[in-house]
Amino acid sequence: MGVKLDSLEEPDAYRNNIYSIGRLLVDRSLQPWLANDFIFKVLGYKEKLDKCLTPIHSFTRKIIQQRRYEFHEDIVPVASTSEDIYGGKKQRYAMLDTLLTAERNNLIDVEGIREEVDTFTFEGHDTTASGITMILFCLAQNPDIQERVYEEIKSIRQEKNGAPLEIADYSNLVYTDRVIKECLRLYPPVPFISRELTETQEVNGYPVPTGTIVALHIFDLHRDPQYFPDPERFDPDRFLPEQVEKRHPFAYLPFSAGPRNCIGQKFALLEIKTVIESILINFHLSPITRREDLVFVTDLVLRTADPIKIKFTRRT
């Protein structure tokens, strides 16, 4: 978004209310009678939801307000539909700048921007945090694999002679990439998705009519032994190119698929690699929480009932 979090006053309130909204939405999805808006309102759920949404929308509006000020101060948008929509002295290319340029060109209104910022702010922090947590957990549980990832990272850094890694360097972390994919297979940050059928489908001989909401449970899909033999075993080699070619393209969906897939997929993977690289080059991870101790709770994002604990030992 182009705004520093420490310049805002309400990140904790935002985070806490996001969790509350998640619980409310899960409650509604698990209790069919709450799908009715009138019943949802009469039983007091809508009032709770609105109370949680107020500070969340306030937080995102402050992001927009601050960026709008800096946008007009530092960037002169070019009223054009071409890819080069920026000009000016500082050349900042935050996503929010694109939305503000679209607003200036009457392609989106204020509430439209707020909705987009809400989406990216939520999807861009909670899911990635869940993914990073579970990847660190998997690395701590598998010391041999952790060491191999560390050696690959160290090798790339040595080639750079101490210079910071660039985007192209992260694409060379081939083994690390396979490890991350295997972690996301076992512990997808978004454990389920939903789709509305646009035409009647047949499932196991039964017709499913148009308009039906279909829930796809990614957590279970990734444990289908037909595509992932011995599915609970942690094995990054499942993502060797020759292994991937054998599988159905929709057997692995950590970022969903099709026209409604995750718009931030490439950024999320780059963010994950950046964090993993920074941590492993400085610390060795040892397990405290065991795999058999994991108890997952129903939520919009994959969460455990208790905090996951890992020991960090500084490398010498």
Provide an overview of this structure.
Helix 7 (143-159) runs antiparallel to helix 9. Strand 2 and strand 3 form a beta hairpin. The model is unreliable at 76-90 (pLDDT under 50). It is built from twelve helices and eight strands. Strands 1-4 form a two-stranded antiparallel ribbon. It has helices at 11-30, 37-42, 45-74, 95-104, 110-123, 126-141, 143-159, 167-170, 174-186, 218-221, 241-246, 265-280, and strands at 192-196, 201-203, 206-208, 213-217, 283-287, 296-297, 303-304, 310-314. The chain is mainly α and 316 residues long. The chain is globular, with a radius of gyration of 22 Å. 49% of the residues lie in helices and 9% in strands. Heme binds at residue 262. Keywords: Heme, Iron, Metal-binding, Monooxygenase, Oxidoreductase. May be involved in the metabolism of insect hormones and in the breakdown of synthetic insecticides.
Radius of gyration: 22 Å
SSE topology string = HHHHHHHHHEEEEHHHEEEE
**Global shape:** globular
Number of strands: 8
The amount of beta strand, in percent, is 5-15%
Strand order of the largest sheet: 1-4
Largest sheet, in brief, is: 2 strands, antiparallel
Mean pLDDT: 87
Structural class: mainly alpha
* End-to-end gap: 37 Å
Helix content: 40-55%
Unreliable spans: 76-90
Number of helices: 12
InterPro entries: Cyt_P450 (IPR001128), Cyt_P450_CS (IPR017972), Cyt_P450_E_grp-I (IPR002401), Cyt_P450_sf (IPR036396), Cytochrome_P450_Monoox (IPR050196)
GO molecular function: heme binding; iron ion binding; monooxygenase activity; oxidoreductase activity, acting on paired donors, with incorporation or reduction of molecular oxygen
Binding site for heme: 262
Cofactor: heme
